[in-house]
Amino acid sequence: MEQLGVDTDKLEDMKTDDSGAGGGSGVDGSNSLGLWASRNAVSFYEAQGHERVMEHNHEYQDGIELTLVEMEKQLIP
């Protein structure tokens, strides 16, 4: 399997949460980017400039529970 590098990886999809749709954030731009990461991915996102906000226990439909870390990165200084 080929290992992908920075030059070949790309973000496939990003959308505004339904509660924020129609508010102009896609046109005006946003000053921050938020995401939920598994604990083992936190160090990767921290290296990219994201900061921890809070932890949340999430239970999936199959009953598996996983601790997710909410993270945020400021896009516009």
Automatic annotation (TrEMBL):
Q: Does the keyword Transferase apply?
A: yes
Highest taxon in the source lineage: Archaea
What keywords does the record list, in alphabetical order?
Answer: Transferase
Annotated region Disordered: the residues are 1-29
Basic and acidic residues composition bias: which ranges?
A: 7-18
Q: Name one GO molecular function term.
A: transferase activity
Q: What is this protein called?
A: Acetyltransferase (GNAT) family
Q: Which organism is it from?
A: Halapricum desulfuricans
Q: Write the gene name.
A: wecD7
